[in-house]
Design goal:
Elements: E1 8-12, E2 28-35, E3 43-45, E4 51-52, E5 55-56, E6 61-68, E7 73-79, H1 86-100, E8 107-111, E9 117-118, H2 134-152, E10 155-165, E11 171-172, E12 174-177, E13 183-184, E14 190-191, E15 193-195, E16 204-207, E17 214-222, E18 231-238, E19 250-251, H3 254-266, E20 277-282, E21 288-289, H4 304-320, E22 332-337, E23 340-342, H5 348-359, H6 370-382, E24 387-389, E25 392-397, E26 400-404, E27 408-409, H7 411-421, E28 426-429, E29 438-439, H8 442-445, H9 463-476
Helix pairs in contact: 1-2, 3-4, 5-6, 7-9
Length: about 475
């Protein structure tokens, strides 16, 4: 069993904006939440076959934090959703621009990747553009309302940045297996790695990639004549895919929502006149989950493991908050671009096979059959044009940069982003402004496995390098 490593804390003050910050207006912050819980009956997504929601275990929210340095406003929004179609983000950011005069490129909207939420991906997650359905329009309106209420609550504030080391909940889920174990894609190709292998199997060799133990967070608190006041909001990212273990047909925010509730409780802020709003975004966890594959995982009650992880992570962040170095003389900035990458398209032979497969009569036994599912995905991919634009964003808070991509990003990509911006200078958020599938590195593409299959991954193998270079260029373009 993996040895439990005590959580270590690294506290990093946010540098000021330098000479340009002299004479700037007062720094302010405000935070609010909007309930985005769907009606029962909608399709819960996260597995290969959607199923109807029959019960709400815990409410879903869009959690919002707005920062204002007197010249620039930034809005951070984290939604309890598997992911969101880019049309949802586009519509919400446009409405925020019109109603609140916050530029679209200054608004970050991401999904947590809970696997127990009703879909806001629309009729087809593979459609490049789409008309919004009723639930998508509802989510858009609630995001806009949440940001508006956060703006209404803007007050004098100061902000700090911290990093907590929490490695014990993270396990890379892609494994090299012994030669005796043969893993195949739904298309019949041999994979060199296996996603979610049998726990405790003697054929396990080693994980195919790393984990990122750091939970990074920005935290804003009130600033008053006494020096400091109540905590306003916290924006954090942790590279853990999700935990799972919900009841049948249940809607739940997973550990992301439980973390927020527990942190509010620990801070004693649940009865405050102006609520404290924490939010936990998905870091770079496309190949990381909460399962220790070295040992068989014992059965647990619904929500038991989820709450264990959420409460432990919240407790460690709670202990870190008082030690953060706060500043109010900081500069905010944002850069947004849409570089072009190529879609992956099926070969003629694969497309012919896919059409034959989906033409077979559907039965209860083959509805969840992987070859049939991926045949449908290959056909959908064939309808794409050759190229697409991909929204990427970098938000600056003092000396700290938050980078985004609209994918389930592999951990190696997030670690490389941190290396490029410098230690303690930033972190990445997945599933922002769209849902474009998994994003492995080129070297992970060569290994195969679930996250690289056509239809799970949708863009050219070099995409992670292209987008990292773009983010680095965006950041270096700013003074």
């Amino acid at each position: 069993m993996q040895r439990m490593i005590p959580a270590l804390l690294l506290i990093i003050g946010i540098a000021s904006g330098g000479p340009a910050s002299v004479g700037r207006c007062e720094f302010r912050a405000g935070a609010a939440t909007s309930n985005i819980t769907p009606p029962l009956g909608g399709d819960v997504v996260g597995g290969f076959v959607p199923f109807p929601a029959t019960h709400i275990h815990d409410e879903l929210h869009a959690r919002c934090l707005v920062l204002d340095d007197g010249q620039t406003k930034l809005a951070f929004v984290v939604c309890d959703l598997l992911g969101l179609h880019r049309s949802v983000s586009d519509a919400a950011r446009e409405a925020i621009r019109e109603k609140l005069s916050i530029p679209k490129e200054n608004v970050l909207i991401s999904g947590t990747h809970t696997h127990s939420a009703v879909s806001v991906l629309g009729s087809s997650r593979y459609a490049v553009a789409q008309e919004l359905d009723d639930y998508q329009r509802f989510v858009v309106s609630r995001i806009v309302d949440g940001v508006a209420r956060a703006v209404n609550l803007l007050r004098p504030a100061e902000i700090g940045f911290g990093v907590v080391e929490i490695p014990e909940h993270l396990f890379n889920r892609r494994w090299f297996m012994a030669d005796s174990y043969v893993a195949k894609s739904p298309y019949g190709e041999i994979d060199r790695v296996k996603m979610n292998p049998p726990g405790g199997s003697p054929e396990l060799v080693k994980p195919a990639g790393p984990t990122d133990p750091q939970l990074s967070f920005l935290v804003a608190r009130e600033r008053n004549e006494a020096g400091s006041g109540a905590v306003i909001g916290l924006f954090a990212a942790y590279s853990l895919h999700y935990v799972g273990g919900v009841g049948s047909g249940h809607v739940s925010a997973d550990y992301f929502g439980m973390f927020c509730d527990e942190l509010v409780r620990l801070q004693g802020a649940d009865l405050a006149a102006t609520p404290f709003v924490p939010m936990l975004a998905n870091g770079t966890s496309g190949d990381v989950n909460n399962i220790n594959f070295r040992e068989p995982r014992p059965a647990k009650k619904s929500y038991e493991q989820m709450r264990f992880v959420a409460n432990d992570v919240a407790a460690k962040v709670h202990r870190a908050i008082p030690d953060v170095t706060y500043r109010h003389d900081i500069k905010l900035d944002a850069v947004y671009r849409e570089p072009t990458v190529k879609w992956r398209l099926p070969s003629p032979a694969l497309l012919a096979w896919a059409k034959e497969k989906v033409a077979e009569p559907e039965t209860p036994s083959n509805r969840a059959d992987l070859p049939r599912i991926y045949a449908g995905r290959a056909i959908a991919m064939n309808e794409h044009p050759a190229e697409t634009v991909v929204p990427v964003q970098a938000l600056r808070v003092g000396d700290v940069w938050v980078g985004t991509m609209p994918f389930e990003i592999f951990t190696e990509i997030g670690l490389e982003f941190k290396r490029r911006v410098g230690p303690g200078k930033g972190f990445m958020v997945s599933l922002a402004h769209g849902y474009f599938g998994y994003l492995p590195t080129p070297s992970q593409h060569a290994l195969g496995g679930y996250e690289t299959w056509l239809g799970t991954n949708r863009v050219q193998p070099e995409t992670s390098d292209i987008l990292l270079d773009e983010l680095e260029s965006m950041i270096r373009s700013r003074p």
